[in-house]
Amino acid sequence: MAKKLNRPEFLPVNEDDLKPGHRWHRPLQAPGTTQVDFEERVDFRRLHRYRLARTREALAESGMGAMLSFDQYNIRYISSTVIGEWARDKLIRYCLLTGTGDPWVWDFGSAARHHRIYCPWLHEDHIRAGNPGMRGAIGPEVGLFKQAAKEIKDLLEQEGVADMPLGLDVCEPPMLFALQEQGIEVRDGQQMMLAAREIKSHDEITLLNIASSMVDGVYQDIAAELKPGVKESQIVALATKRLYEMGSDCVEAINSISGERCSPHPHNFTDRLIRPGDQAYFDIIHSFIGYRTCYYRTFTVGSATQSQRDAYKRARQWMDDAIAMLKPGLGTDKAAEQLPKASDIGFESEMAAFGLNFCHGLGLGLHERPLISRLNSFIEPYELKAGMVFAVETFCPATDGISAARIEEMVVLTPEGAKIISLYPAKELPIANRY
Question: What ranges in 80-167 are assigned the alpha helix state H?
Fold first, then answer.
């Protein structure tokens, strides 16, 4: 029989902070990358309050007493702190939020002191230097994991939630063991955080739209540069440079794929030289103020064959049919039914074809909710909601055995349906530098 917990009084959630502030009656904003005094663009303090309120609400409903995050996206969502791409895979920064208190942040050395100066929305005494071990570079025998776990346990006791389960997203195994040695019941907190993050506010949608507008411009540059003799890697360099010039804070990855490499999709880039008649497709994944794009476009170089055109037409039809049915209240299982089967593109199973014809949420992370595919959505369907932002991806191999069409649109789910915010023209197969 499960132990009954006497839950302490959680801090109330401010209902005004929970309001996403959507303005569906007006065009979605894609303003410039700087702030001005004559237009309201992004209200960052409002953004901070919304994200923290969403987390508090999800925590209150979870049955857990606190959330401990090592996931960089969750740390940023809860605390509005970040120290850049360097920290993404170090598992060195962490954040604690209890139901009865305000965020605690442990950061790398002097970054903690920097936060005390520049992050007035956090309590100065809630910001500490921390280092559990840098992914094993400092061995567990030094005791940093145990020290961190003891510090966390003391805070849980101080804030009255030590007898309740602790949510955790990702960590090194020694951190988990150290928490358990402190007598803490650890539960999966990632699902709670993804539920909190699934409805984007007006400010979040604005940031996602700005990020997408930057990729619109990069594709214009790619179309001009896509000529025989140019390397796939040179296109990556061009796109990366332009994104940082426009204000990107992280170019996470760019797929650049051409010719015989198009099918099957390798999800990378090489130094292959572009040749006349090649099909070439690209995925641009970058972030603006943390909010990410995932945005494919396919081109042919100079001219296109009938098999290339046919594959593109089929991929576009799948895309348009899927987007047309997306609306609030639709089950993700019904949306998945609209997507092509693995056998339609020559794969033996949905696992083998995963990621080629599916939808995935976008936000601070590249893969958030909703995640819609034939692999998972029939097993665990849930309801689409206004304010979700996600990418819709399709892939279709050509009958020539080497070419393939790859298209992806970023959409905002409004009360009336899906609105596309990836605007580089893609209704028909683009031909770069036509002969």
Answer: 110-118, 144-158
Which pLDDT band holds residue 2 (cuts at 50, 70, 90)? very low
Query: Are 314 and 242 in a shared domain?
Result: yes
| End position of a domain, from candidates 147, 176, 196 | 196
CATH of residue 282: 3.90.230.10
Same domain flag for 19 and 157: yes
Together in a domain, 191 and 273: no
pLDDT for res 6: 67
Answer yes or no: is pLDDT of 319 > 90.
yes
* Total number of domains in the chain: 2
pTM of the model: 0.96
Question: Angle at which helices 190-197 and 44-62 pack, to 10 degrees?
Answer: 140
Q: What does the alpha-carbon distance between residue 199 and residue 203 come to, in Å, rounded to a whole number? A: 11
- pLDDT digits 0-9 by tens, 56-67: 999 999 999 999
299 and 392 share a domain?
A: yes
84 backbone φψ class: left, alpha, beta (φ>0; ψ -120 to 50): left
Nearest partner of 408 among 323, 346, 345, judged by Cα: 323
Contacts of 252 (CB under 8 A, 6+ apart): 85, 285, 286, 287, 292, 366
